[in-house]
């Protein structure tokens, strides 16, 4: 038990250090890290689906698609290349559709559906991190790298998870979604939300490119959609009959276990910030 806790602690610290360090260091380290994470996450998702035995997805092609989509959106957001950068990705999607005509697998519709879901559910959210990270500056007619927005998403998620665990362990009585995740409580979720919103005031103080209310709103959006993201992966694992999505992170499970909340929180954060620009 003690060795397992130590393993979890060491892995958790290294995970946070690498993630925070790569986001803050440079656009290159940010791009390399999340290209790898995106590809590994898509590969893990397709591996889990294939294990079910009902479908058979091309794990290599879908993982390459996830990696390419991240790089394509990154290049597009940096204005280094136009929309034509997405043409190879469209060709890849067409390849996944057309090859099913010739492979004579038992469930081609299922293969199509889950192949596309791997891109929509897993690859696209990671690619959208670029929308948060690279922002156009109209006064200088240039694009600047702002690591704080993508970093804040993960900070809000981590604090929400930590707060939910601590508060839920102490006073959690009312189940949040017992059918899918029996351990989660309303008290824990609200406590986690308070932790995240409190941290948004720190972000507002040091990074005032958003107002206090805007930062607090972002934290609230991340908490709500992050919780739904967590529950979505829990539903998937429950249906597949597994405890962890993988074993790549000792003591912490797989990539999807670590980023399940982010898969919904990132797109929701992008929508929220775009809505702010329209107001």
From TrEMBL:
Note the PANTHER family from the entry.
PHOSPHATIDATE CYTIDYLYLTRANSFERASE
User: GO CC: one term?
Assistant: plasma membrane
What residue ranges are annotated as transmembrane? 12-40, 87-103, 115-136, 148-167, 213-231, 259-277
Instruction: Provide the catalytic activity annotation.
Output: a 1,2-diacyl-sn-glycero-3-phosphate + CTP + H(+) = a CDP-1,2-diacyl-sn-glycerol + diphosphate
- Report any one BP term from Gene Ontology: CDP-diacylglycerol biosynthetic process
UniProt key word Magnesium: no
Q: Member of which family? A: Belongs to the CDS family.
Bilayer disposition of the protein? Multi-pass membrane protein
How is this protein named in the record? Answer: Phosphatidate cytidylyltransferase
Query: What are the GO MF terms of this UniProt record?
Result: phosphatidate cytidylyltransferase activity
